[in-house]
Amino acid sequence: MSGGVDSAVAAARAVEAGHEVVGVHLALSRMPGTLRTGARGCCTIEDSMDAQRAANIIGIPYYVWDFSERFKLDVVDDFIAEYTAGRTPNPCMRCNERIKFAALLEKALDLGFDAVATGHYANIQTDADGNRELHRAADWAKDQSYVLGVLTSEQLAHSMFPLGATPSKAEVRAEAAARGFSVATKPDSHDICFIPDGDTRGWLAERVGAEQGVIRDRTGDVVGSHEGANAFTIGQRKGLNLGVPSADGRPRFVLEVKPASNEVVVGPREALDIAEVAGSKLSWAGLGPVDSGIIADAADPFDCFVQIRAHSEPVAAVARLVPRTGASEGQVELVIRPNVPLNGVAPGQTAVLYVGTRVLGQCTIDRTVSAVPVPA
């Protein structure tokens, strides 16, 4: 129970469905002041109190479990390491993968519970053979299946999403108000919970340092300078210290971050169009494409939709598994070619594949191929 309206209503519905429910709030920092306060966060002292009030109204036991050390290692430290490597991580995805449906689920199963229920907007369906599948929520505007794309078949077997079939968030808020929950009108959480003031650049500079370097265009010419490459993200336009204007006078955007040489590469907006993405860290949300009957052989390409951000539109694509270059035998990477170019994709982001409403699986993007060749 995060302290928000969704998890409170999910807990109440689980009780009414006949389950024996225990409310658990995750303490993710031993210094709560380092996490966002008020309505902006999802794991503050205020949120814990909101969750307890909801649990009291529902009439269920309520506990706070300390996962602060695991959260620091698996989410915060990972976030720093990814940025240091010039990648753009998704901490909410890592939190779901390593905390809520790994550390939390492991502890729950060890204590004799059957499942973890959350307030995520997503559905679990069962195929004709009894295999569980992850699907989009009924309300696509609130659908959160993207951030759950990291779940495995084993984790889906012990997961419940009581809000998945709800037509709208407005209905959930109305239900919360009818139940007497004080969080009925509480705003949704957003932004990165462990960066108190939202200043990602400053937060990173304090932890990994910042060293002045150069900004180059796609041909390698120096066009400016920066105070630390770690602070830049793919697609960024603002905050570029460019001393040399572009030949056509058009604005330039960050195309690549090179931490090894402390360089940032910029170019025109159209160079952000990506014709291909690939990643070797991949997983299937249930049965993979061969076992699902989507393809007959692991090397066969298959049609799907790819989504690269939690709130972006899915794009029709063709995906295939190919041997990973330079890797041991049997290691593969997932290569995805969208039918129309994706925009502003960065290594470190997560590409989630859909077949219809079903989440097939995901990969962390290792590399991208621009749709616009580098000028000769």
TrEMBL record:
Keywords: ATP-binding, Cytoplasm, Disulfide bond, Nucleotide-binding, RNA-binding, Transferase, tRNA processing, tRNA-binding. It is found in: Cytoplasm. Signal peptide: none annotated. Residues 203-267 form the tRNA-specific 2-thiouridylase MnmA-like central domain. InterPro entries: MnmA-like, MnmA-like_C, MnmA-like_central, MnmA-like_central_sf, Rossmann-like_a/b/a_fold. Its EC number is 2.8.1.13. GO terms for cellular component: cytoplasm. GO terms for biological process: tRNA wobble position uridine thiolation. GO terms for molecular function: ATP binding; tRNA binding; tRNA-uridine 2-sulfurtransferase activity. CDD domains: MnmA_TRMU-like. It holds the Pfam family tRNA_Me_trans_C. Residues 300-365 form the tRNA-specific 2-thiouridylase MnmA-like C-terminal domain. It catalyses: S-sulfanyl-L-cysteinyl-[protein] + uridine(34) in tRNA + AH2 + ATP = 2-thiouridine(34) in tRNA + L-cysteinyl-[protein] + A + AMP + diphosphate + H(+). ATP binds at residues 26, 119. Belongs to the MnmA/TRMU family. NCBIfam families: PRK00143.1 (NF001138), trmU (TIGR00420). PANTHER family: MITOCHONDRIAL TRNA-SPECIFIC 2-THIOURIDYLASE 1, TRNA 5-METHYLAMINOMETHYL-2-THIOURIDYLATE -METHYLTRANSFERASE. This is tRNA-specific 2-thiouridylase MnmA. It comes from Marisediminicola antarctica. The gene is mnmA.
